Amino acid sequence: MNLVTGVTSLILLVLWVVAFGATVFALIHAVRQRAEAFTAVDKMTKPIWLAILAGAMVFLLLGIAGFGMLTSFIAIIATGVYLADVRPKIDEVQRGPRW
């Protein structure tokens, strides 16, 4: 029984580290972008995204501290939306088309 608990805990820790790394990456990316790029691609403003991603980081820290997995899921969803939807459009508008 202890082996199963240990393996489960290890898997959850690895997933948490990946989620935390993705959130840190997204937050650093958002900080480095121009504020006009967010409104140019019809997304929320830069301060709002910074607050969302900083909140996601806090939620992840609360999740690892034992406040439940719901906070971690909220953080992962917020980070995923930024990385999958906002980041590619901001990169495209600042660099132009890639062809």
Automatic annotation (TrEMBL):
<protein>
    <submittedName>
        <fullName>Membrane protein</fullName>
    </submittedName>
</protein>
<keyword id="KW-0472">Membrane</keyword>
<dbReference type="InterPro" id="IPR019662">
    <property type="entry name" value="DUF2516"/>
</dbReference>
<keyword id="KW-1133">Transmembrane helix</keyword>
<feature type="transmembrane region" description="Helical">
    <location>
        <begin position="6"/>
        <end position="28"/>
    </location>
</feature>
<keyword id="KW-0812">Transmembrane</keyword>
<feature type="transmembrane region" description="Helical">
    <location>
        <begin position="48"/>
        <end position="78"/>
    </location>
</feature>
<dbReference type="Pfam" id="PF10724">
    <property type="entry name" value="DUF2516"/>
</dbReference>
